[in-house]
Amino acid sequence: MIFGSEANKKLQPPKCPSNGTAARTRRLFKTQRAVKTFPASGCNTQRLNQTNPAFMTLTYRRLTPTDAVAYRALMLEAYDRHPDAFTSDVKERETLPGEWWENRLDNSNASTEAVFAAVEDNKLLGVAGLSVETRNKARHKSTLFGMYVPQAHRNRGIGYQLMCSVLEHARSRPELLVVQLTVTQGNAAAQGLYERMGFVTFGVEPLAVAVGSRFVSKVHMWKDLRE
């Protein structure tokens, strides 16, 4: 996986013939350079951090109950600004006590949820969580929840590295075989990221979420952790 100036050196435009195909070739080359590709499995975050200064001030860690106030503020922002993307409603969540948010960030061995964050200067720039099934017949499954990166901090690879953190945590639990998620139909950027991380669509749920007087559908995706 190559990023930044190193990638530009590796990928040079082909010599164009002196005819009408030259302009088309240049346009194709620009398109190729604009597309970022990531490994379908495994995350090379070290190289990503080393080659682009935009990543170097960020750290990624699992949140703890002491982060509850900051986490609550970021998620309420997410529910308020992007109602199509979340089943949870801002009015429902803002009435929950602080203890609820602290419990969600419980990082003990007994916890069935884990939330990871991108942190810069003690500020949360993005979050993503994983919830593990507790029922006997479904303990091999887990679900991604609360994936959010504010608009001001996008295009820095934060979503990618948050997914790396979530998948690394999932693989650290030997009982887990599956990670599932839903993404709002039409959210091409988010669905594209999940596909690059190895998730596969297995269905679309119509009328999944009511947003005011309208409904949005959800694309259901899954990833086999054995691959």
What does this structure look like?
Keywords: Acyltransferase, Transferase. InterPro entries: Acyl_CoA_acyltransferase, Bact_Acetyltransf, GNAT_dom. This is Acetyltransferase, GNAT family. Residues 1-22 are annotated as: Disordered. GO terms for molecular function: acyltransferase activity, transferring groups other than amino-acyl groups. This protein has 227 residues and is α+β, with helices and mostly antiparallel strands. The chain has a domain at 4-8 and 39-172: Gcn5-related N-acetyltransferase (GNAT) (Aminopeptidase, 3-Layer(aba) Sandwich). 34% of the residues lie in helices and 26% in strands. It is built from 8 helices and 7 strands, in the order αααβαααβββαβαββ. The chain has helices spanning 4-10, 21-34, 45-51, 68-81, 90-94, 98-104, 158-171, 188-196, and strands at residues 59-62, 113-120, 123-132, 141-148, 178-184, 200-211, 214-224. Strands 1-2-3-4-5-7-6 form a 7-stranded mixed beta sheet, with helices on both faces. Helix 7 links the parallel strand 4 and strand 5 (178-184). The longest helix has 14 residues, at 21-34. Residues 1-18, 20-41 and 45-50 have low confidence and may be disordered.
